[in-house]
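Here we describe the complex-level prediction in full. Unlike the single-chain runs in Section 2.1, the two entities below were treated as one system.
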Amino acid sequence: MAIIHGRNVKIYNSSGTALIGAAKSCVVNMDADNFEVASETSATDKEYIPGRSSWTVELSHLLTTNKGGIPLVKSKYVISYMVGSTQVYTGTVLCMHADIQGAVGNLATGNISMLGSGPLTAV
Amino acid sequence: MAYNIHWKIVFKSLRAATTYTVNIYKDGTVPTGYPLKLKGGAEPFTTEEDASEDMFTPIRTQTGYLRIVDDGYAVNASNATVAWDWKELIPENNTDRPVTLTDGGGNVVWCGFMQAQNFGGTLFGNPQEREYPLMCPLSICEDTFINTSQTSIRNFAYLLKSVVDAIPTLCQPTSIVVQGGADAQSWLLKKFDWYNFVNIDASDELSPKYNMLQCLEDMCRFWGWTARMKAKTLYLTCAEDSAEVNALSLTYANLTSLAGGTDAGTVSAMFSTVILSGAIYASNSNEDSMIRGYNKATVKSDCNKAEDEVTGFMPKSVENYLIHLEPTRETYGGKNVDWYGDLAGFPNTSLGIKSPLLTGWALAQYGSFTYVSGEEVKGNAIRIKKSYSNSTNVYLSLETTFDHNWCTDFFTTGIDNGGFQLHGNIYQGTSRVNDYVEGSAIFDHFGWTGCGKKSMYIRFGIGTDRGSAKWFTGTGWQSTVCAFKVTVGNEDDILRPLDTSIDPDMNVSAIKHIAPPHDSPLEGKIFIDFLGSDDLLYILHPTSLEREFYITGFRVDFSKSKDFENTDGVTRDETQTEMYYVATSASRTGQEWNADCAFASENNMKHGYGVLINPDGTLMETAQYGQNNEHPEQHLANRVAAYWETSKRRIYAELQTNAIADINPRNTTTMDGTPLYPIAISREWRDDITKITFLEI
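The structure predicted for the assembly as a whole is:
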C-alpha cells in the first residue's frame, strides 16, 4: 500500500464535485464483526466467519478551500485518499465531531472525526 | 409421514473424538441439492432435562436449543455454496421439524423436535446467530389426545403403546425399559376402563379427557415410575429402588403384543355389570339417605377372550355374600367358560343383603345424634322461634322401646320463665296410658296466623327442612304400636289446658305398609307444626300480634314396629332388630342374570328371611350395608360382584369415579381382608338405577 500523506486527503461535497478542504494528517480505523461457528474439523480451535465492517476517519489541520466556511457536523462528504494525484480510496463519510481552532495571524486548524457510511472503496 | 433429512449441521465434539451431526428432517421429498449443510453456532446443540428435585416426578422431559449462524449461504449436497437464510428452518408445528443428533458412528444420541413458536429476528440481515428451541419426544405427546373410539377395557400396555404411538415414528422409542422385571409385565397387563380417560356428555358424545402425556403421567404416578427418554429408549424407572434393577426391556413389537393389538376383541377381559334398578325406599321417603334397596339386580357378564378357559371354581364362602350364583358352563369361541353365574331359584339358595333396621349404631352413623336404643339422646336443638328471654337449648330426644307397643318414659323438664308445659299423652290403642310432662315452652308475642278456633296439634316429619319434610302420616302404623297425643298446659297451670284432643296427623288405624322412620337419618330435624287455637291465643297474650314461641327440652318418644312391612297386623315379638335384603327370585337370559329383590325380616317375607338362617338357627353372617362407608347400592353391587370371585378370577371393585389419577398402588383397598389393586371400572348413577361394572384383573 502506498503511503498516504495527510496532504493527500481531500474532502469533497456530498456529490463529490467540489473540493472543500484537505487535511494535514489523517487516521483511518476499520473494524469488522465476527461470528464463531461450530467447526467441522477442529475440536479445540475456534472458527469464525466475518460479519459487518465499519470505518472511521480522523483528520487534523484541515485547510478549507471555502473561505466562507463549510457545514461540519451532521454533514455528509466524500473523502478521497490520494497518492500523488491518483485517488486510491474513496468513500462517503458523516462528520460526527469537529474541533476548530483559530488564532490571529495563523490559519484556522481543527480536528474532525468522520464516520464512514457505506464502503470505503479502493479505486 | 415420510421424514427426510433436509438440513444438517456437522461439528466436531470438544474432545475431537467424534464428529456429531444434527439432522433436521422435514416431511416430503428431498429437493435437488439437499440436504444443505448449515453453519452451526458456537454451541450448535444443547439440551437440558427437567431438574425437579422431587424424586417421584412422574415425567422428566427435556428442552434444548439448536443454534446456527446464518450468513446468507449454505453448502449444498454438491459442496457448492448456495443462497439460504434461517427462516427456512422455522417449523409450522411441533412435529414439522424432527431433529436427531448422531455421533460419528451414526448412533442417535438425542432426538426430538424443533418447537413451533413465535420466531422473531432480523429477516434479511446476516450474518447472525439464530436459536431454535427443541422439545423431546415425550413433550410431543402433549399435542395428542387419547383415542375415544376404543372399547372400554384396556390394559396399561395398551395405554403405554398409545403414548408411544403418539410420537412420530422418527423419534418413537424403539425400546422401552420398565423397572420391575416380570412384575412389570404383569403390571402392564392390568386392565382398566379406558373410559376413565373419556368425557361422556349427556348426549353420550365422547371427548378425550387427557392428552397422551397426561395419560403417561397418570400411569407413572400410579405405578410409581418416572418416565424419561434417552436417545430412542423410553425408561420407566422407580426412584425408590435401584434404577433399572431387574428391568423389563421391551421392543415396540413386545409392547404391541402385550397391549393386545388394536382389536379389542383379543384383549383378555372379563367383566360383569351389576345393574340395580327399581329403588325401594324403606319408609316411603324421598330422602336418599333413608334406607334404600332395589327391586332388581341384574348381572351382565362378558367374556372377550375365547381362549381364556376357566376351571376350578372355588365358591366364595356363602356366608359372606348374598346372592348365590350357581356355576354354569358356557362356550365362547369354542372354549368353555365356567361362570359362577346362574342365580338359583329363591328361596333355596338365595341369600340376602342384610340391612340393619334402625339400630343405635346405624343411627349414630348418620348425624349428630349419639343414639343408643332406650337411652336419652340429645342432639340438635329445635328452635321454633327466638326466645325473648331464655335461650336454653332445645333438645330433641328420641327413644324407641322395642319391647312395648307404646311409648314410655317420657320425662319432665320443668318450666322455664313461666312458659307452659307440653304434655305428651301416649296412648295404646284408644286408651290413654299416661300423661307425660315432656317439655316447657316460653312464649311471647305468639300470634301466628291461623290461631283461630282450632286445636293445636303436632305432627312429626323427617327431612332436611320443613318444606321438603316427609311427614309421618302414620300410614301403616298399627294403633297398637304407637299413637301420639299432645297437650299443652295442665289443669294446675294458670293457663288452662288447651284442647288437644285431635290426634296427631297420623292414621293410627291403618295396619299396612308400615313406614316407620326405622333407618332414616334422624340427624335431620323433627318438625313440629303448631297451629294456634283460640284457646292458645287466649292464653298467650291475645292482644299482641307479634309473639314468638319457644320450646325447650322438648322430647319425643315413640315406639314402632321393626318390620318394614307388617302386612297382617298381628302383634309380634318385636325383638327382631334387623331386616334383610334378599333375592326373591332369579332368572337368566343368556349372560344376563336377574334377581328380584325385596326386604325381608323375621316377620315379613319369612320365607326369604328363613334362608338367612343357618341350620343351627343362627343368622347367617351377612355383610352389612354401612361397612366401609359404602352406599347401599355400592354394597349390593359389591356383594353381587364379589360373588364371582373364584380361585382364578378375582373381581375387584373400585368405586371412585376418577380412576387413574386418584389411585395409587401404595393405597390398596381391602375387601374381605385381601389387599386389592383399586382398578376402577365404570359406574353410572341414576335416580333409581345404579350400574356398576367390575373387572377382573
